[in-house]
């Protein structure tokens, strides 16, 4: 793997590229953004994007692409940015990724493409995510999406769930000529992208635009359909005449801590809390009034250390919380949230109570939360996840006054589809069994991918599964082989 400058359009010599500093992402000042739901990161302009793109070493064997679950040709799209062909760069990304404006914003690039960037051995890695976002936004602004024309195959595919896995399957299959209809339980399309991730990280308009593009390509969407209740997978295949079904229903069932007081008013699952903010539009206060989430002057804590926890607490701060705590039972090193989000949260004034866990929620005697009784922890030996196990420190209990607590300790599989689909195999945690390569399930004609197979993961991993599923659904539809 050696950097190569042959036929490069980059005017900077490979040796000098490392001297260009990574271009900073312009962002809203922390003291302002802590009080509004506008986007935190403001995006590169053309000048910053080209300067950043010139840092690319143009490796002969680009490990960034190898480490991208959907295999984006990073080297090529970055080269097109250097050449000033921003629309060409967007088109190059779209060959592998139907949601570039989304992944450019929320992918954990530090663990994927950027994590393997050769530059990072000596200096900061190439800002691949920032560049992806720049070209996707540029394309959107220019309104120049090219809608591909393909000959129809006459085959029909039903997609259950409209999160990133389902959207990827739909976007890929429509481009192969199949008719695709997406069935979504909620009244909005997008899965976690719209009901979970808040406006200040991923504006809903961005997701809407990507979905409009899919509509323009011919994908049909039907909302308010709970598959397993409104209709079943069997009915889709045997009565509605679909040739194949993809299940991408995510892992949206909240987990609780099972401690005393968890039933109190003021204790929410992160799922409910974020859905109230995003889908019931509490973030648009005072245009939309969500009285349950009038947090002005109230003390709020979230329990957990992942992206969901940070999204919930940063939203609480923006809704007026007086004090906003993250209570996490391990240390910084084990926090699963994206590093950039942790950094932004600290800048905004979120108070991190690390190595701490609630053991009980206390009430005012009338059913309302008043405090969390917490215990301090220390780290012991690694557990099954490989992370050091938190161990309570005897006698370290203390009470943290609170009026709202949000539980964000993880989610699991909602069983509705599995329990109403005979022949569909699941593992002992209730996730659907599907082949890693083909995403085929144990029931003929039924494919599955994303969080409903792996458990909670990431947008790009769900999209990678969607891409593999689309390829194998296409193969099944064209060969009939199972
Ligand atoms: C708050 C939050 C923040 C996150 N932040 C990030 C991040 O920054 N970066 C990142 O990479 N990942 C992040 N993730 C994880 C990421 O969003 C998920 O891994 C990803 O969305 C999974 O995609 P999916 O398609 O499997 O399912 P989902 O996005 O969960 O979508 C599933 C869809 O299926 C629908 N559905 C469920 N059951 C049925 C049914 N019976 N009938 C019809 N429809 C049904 C649901 O309503 C939903 O719309 C975050 C997750 C959360 C909750």
Task: Kindly describe this structure.
It is a single chain. The chain is an alpha/beta fold and 482 residues long. The protein folds into three domains: 14-142, Orthogonal Bundle (Fumarate Reductase Iron-sulfur Protein, Chain B, domain 2); 156-251 and 413-479, FAD/NAD(P)-binding domain, CATH 3.50.50; 254-411, FAD/NAD(P)-binding domain, CATH 3.50.50. 32% of the residues lie in helices and 16% in strands. Strands 3-2-1-4-16 form a five-stranded parallel β-sheet. It has a five-stranded parallel β-sheet with strand order 6-14-7-8-9. Strands 10, 11, 12 and 13 form a four-stranded antiparallel β-sheet that branches. Strand 11 and strand 12 (388-392) form a beta hairpin. Residues 1-5 have low confidence and may be disordered. It binds flavin-adenine dinucleotide. Flavin-adenine dinucleotide (FAD) binds at residues 106-108, 160-166, 183-186, 191-192, 196-197, 225-228, 248-250, 252, 274, 307-308, 311, 338, 414, 416-417, 450-452, 456-460, 462. Flavin-adenine dinucleotide is lined by residues 106-108, 160-166, 183-186, 191-192, 196-197, 225-228, 248-250, 252, 274, 307-308, 311, 338, 414, 416-417, 450-452, 456-460, 462.
Biggest sheet record: 5 strands, parallel
Poorly predicted segments: 1-5
Strand content: 15-25%
The domain count comes to 3
How are the strands of the largest sheet arranged?
3-2-1-4-16
Q: Name every ligand kind in the structure.
A: flavin-adenine dinucleotide
Number of helices: 18
Shape type: globular
Mean pLDDT: 94
How many extended strands? 16
CATH superfamily of the largest domain: FAD/NAD(P)-binding domain
Span between N and C termini? 39 Å
Radius of gyration: 23 Å
What is the CATH third-level topology name of the largest domain?
A: FAD/NAD(P)-binding domain
Named at the architecture level, the CATH assignment of the largest domain is 3-Layer(bba) Sandwich
């Amino acid at each position: 793997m050696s950097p190569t400058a042959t036929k490069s359009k980059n005017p900077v010599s490979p040796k000098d590229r490392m001297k260009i500093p990574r271009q900073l992402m312009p962002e809203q000042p922390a003291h302002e953004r802590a009080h509004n739901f506008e986007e935190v990161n403001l995006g590169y302009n053309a000048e910053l994007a080209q300067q950043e793109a010139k840092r690319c070493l143009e490796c002969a064997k680009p490990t960034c692409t190898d480490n991208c679950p959907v295999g984006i040709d990073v080297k090529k799209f970055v080269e097109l940015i250097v050449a000033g062909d921003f629309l060409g760069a967007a088109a190059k990304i779209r060959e592998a990724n139907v949601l570039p404006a989304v992944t450019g914003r929320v992918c954990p690039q530090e663990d994927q493409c950027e994590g393997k960037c050769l530059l990072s051995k000596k200096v900061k890695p190439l800002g691949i995510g920032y560049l992806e976002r720049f070209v996707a936004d540029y394309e959107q602004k220019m309104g120049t999406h090219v809608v591909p024309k393909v000959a129809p195959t006459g085959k029909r595919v039903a997609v259950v769930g409209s999160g990133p896995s389902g959207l990827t399957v739909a976007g890929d299959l429509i481009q192969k000529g199949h008719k695709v209809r997406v069935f979504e339980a909620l009244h909005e399309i997008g899965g976690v992208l719209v009901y979970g991730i808040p406006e200040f990280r991923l504006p809903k308009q961005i997701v809407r635009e990507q979905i409009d593009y899919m509509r323009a390509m011919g994908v049909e969407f039907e909302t308010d359909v709970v598959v397993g209740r409104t209709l079943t997978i069997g009915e889709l295949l045997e009565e509605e005449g679909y040739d194949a079904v993809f299940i991408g229903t995510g892992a949206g069932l909240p987990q609780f801590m099972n401690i005393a007081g968890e039933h109190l008013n003021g204790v929410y699952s992160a799922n409910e809390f974020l859905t109230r903010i995003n889908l019931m539009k509490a973030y648009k206060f005072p245009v939309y009034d969500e009285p349950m989430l009038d947090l002005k002057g109230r003390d709020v804590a979230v329990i957990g250390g992942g992206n969901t926890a940070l999204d919930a607490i940063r939203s609480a701060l923006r809704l007026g919380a007086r004090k906003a705590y993250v209570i996490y039972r391990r240390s910084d090193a084990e926090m699963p949230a994206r590093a950039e989000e942790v950094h932004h949260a600290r800048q905004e004034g979120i108070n991190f109570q690390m190595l701490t866990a609630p053991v009980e929620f206390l009430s005012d005697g009338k059913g309302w939360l008043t405090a969390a009784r917490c215990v301090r922890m220390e780290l012991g030996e690694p557990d099954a996840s490989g992370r050091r196990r938190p161990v309570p420190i005897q006698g370290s209990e203390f009470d943290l006054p609170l009026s709202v607590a949000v539980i964000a300790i993880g989610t699991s599989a909602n069983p509705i589809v599995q329990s109403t689909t005979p022949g569909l195999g699941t593992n002992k945690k209730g996730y659907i069994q599907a082949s890693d390569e083909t995403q085929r399930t144990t029931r003929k004609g039924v494919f599955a991918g994303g969080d409903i197979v792996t458990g909670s993961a990431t947008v790009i991993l769900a999209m990678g599964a969607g891409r593999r599923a689309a390829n194998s659904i296409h193969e099944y539809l064209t060969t009939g082989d199972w």
